[in-house]
Amino acid sequence: MVDRAGALADRVWRRYDRKQRMIRYAVLLATVMVVYWAVRDIDIFWPWVWDAPNQISSLGARMWPPDPSRLAAIVNALLETVHIATLATALTIFIALPVSYIAAQNTTPNRACLWLGRFILVASRSVNTIIWALLFVAIFGPGVLAGILAIMFRSVGFIGKLMGEAIEEIDRRPVEAMEATGASKAKVIAYAIVPQVMPAFFAIVILRWDINIRESTVLGLVGAGGIGVILQGAIDTFAWPTVATILIAIVVLVLIGEAVTGLLRGKVL
C-alpha cells in the first residue's frame, strides 16, 4: 500500500500526452519557420527600422504645434467626408437588400440566382475601397462621385452578406403560415420576413455607416474627395503643422461618429 501511495504521489497530471505535445511543438516550429521565411522574403531594410524612433521624434517635433489657420477648409472637407459616407450608405441599401435576398438559401428563387448573389457579395468584399476608388477616379475623374461609388461598391458586400445571413436565420413558421393562406410573394416578404430582420438591418446599416466614415477619410489620398485631399496636399508640401491639425480633426470626427452610432443603436435596437 505504501509503494502504491508513493507511486500515485509521484504521478504528475499533464494536459497533453507525449504524442500531442510533439504535434504541438511541430506546429509551433513550422509556424516560426514560416514567419522567418516571410520576414526574409519581404526584404526589410533594417537600418531604417532601427532609425524609426528618431524619425518619429523628428516628425512629431515638426508637427507641433498644430496650425489652425486652415480650420475652416478642414471643417468643410470633414463635412464632405460625412456626406460621402452617408450618401454611399444610403445608395448601398437599394442594391444590397435585393442581393441579400437572392443570396440567402431560404429565399433565393433558384440556384442560378443564389450563385449570382454570392458572386456579387464576394466580388464586392474582395476589392479594397482604395482600389475601387482608383478605378472610379480613372472612369469619372477626381471628385466626390468617385468616392461615393467606391464606398458603395465596397459596402454592398458587407451589408448584403450580413443581411443574407440574417434572412437565413429567420423563423420559417410565419412564412409558411402566410404561404398556406395564399399570400403573394410580396406580402410574404413584407409581413413575414421583413419584421424579423429589421433589428439586424438597422444594426448592420449603422455599423456600416460608422465604418464608411472612417474609410472616407482616406479616399482623398487617391483623389476621391473628402478630407484626404487636403491631407495629401499638406503632406506633399511638407506642411506638417497642418497635417497635425487634419489628423486631430479626423480623430474628432471618428469619435463623433462613434458617439452617434452608439446613440442610434440605443434608439433603434
UniProtKB/TrEMBL annotation:
Pfam family membership, one: BPD_transp_1
Residues passing through the membrane, by range: 22-39, 84-104, 130-153, 188-209, 216-235, 241-264
UniProt cross-references to InterPro entries, sorted A to Z: MetI-like, MetI-like_sf, PhnE/PtxC
Residue ranges occupied by any ABC transmembrane type-1 domain in the UniProt entry: 78-261
PROSITE patterns linked: ABC_TM1
Membrane topology qualifier: Multi-pass membrane protein
The UniProt record lists the keyword Transport: yes
Subcellular location: Cell membrane
Keywords, alphabetical: Cell membrane, Membrane, Transmembrane, Transmembrane helix, Transport
Similarity comment: family membership: Belongs to the binding-protein-dependent transport system permease family.
Entry protein name: Phosphonate ABC transporter, permease protein PhnE
Phylogenetic lineage: Bacteria, Pseudomonadati, Pseudomonadota, Gammaproteobacteria, Oceanospirillales
